Amino acid sequence: MEEENQESGRKEAGIYALRTTANREDQVMDFVSSNAQHGMRGYIFLEAATRTDAEQAAFNVPYARGILPKEVSYKEIEHMLEQAKVERNIKKNDICEIISGPFKRETAKITRIDKAKEEVVVELLEAAVPIPITVKMDAVKVIRRETEEGEEAESESSESSAEN
Q1: Host domain of residue 132
Q2: Global pTM?
Q3: Do the beta carbons of residue 138 and residue 118 sit within 8 Å?
Q4: Count of structural domains, the chain
Q5: Are residues 98 and 60 in the same domain?
């Protein structure tokens, strides 16, 4: 792949780490171009054709401390840039267990799902009064489905009526 880029006369853009003052990354990003990625405290990753281009982008930027001498490989920062979306198989009326937070190990029934915010609204089963609680989808584990219970109850009742 590098040979193809050299033949056409173009150099593929590299990734450079810009060292910043801690917790000032967002202010530096306002000054630097839009193709900068913030993934680690005190550093911003810039995509530039050469190290000189990266240095020029960071020149005279407040809180920018300088470009690291070595180019960063994509594999080193890949885990910070791409967030893997895991599709959750959660449905309304599922019985779940809360696996983190103050209600850990409590069983609950899912009443509403907000996929955009990745949150679910649950009602605790052991509570005397049903109170809706909003938790992250990561914080619940489905124990059983409401539809499976209904189907099982129907099949058991039809079997008992067939025996009579």
Answers
A1: 85-146
A2: 0.41
A3: yes
A4: 2
A5: no
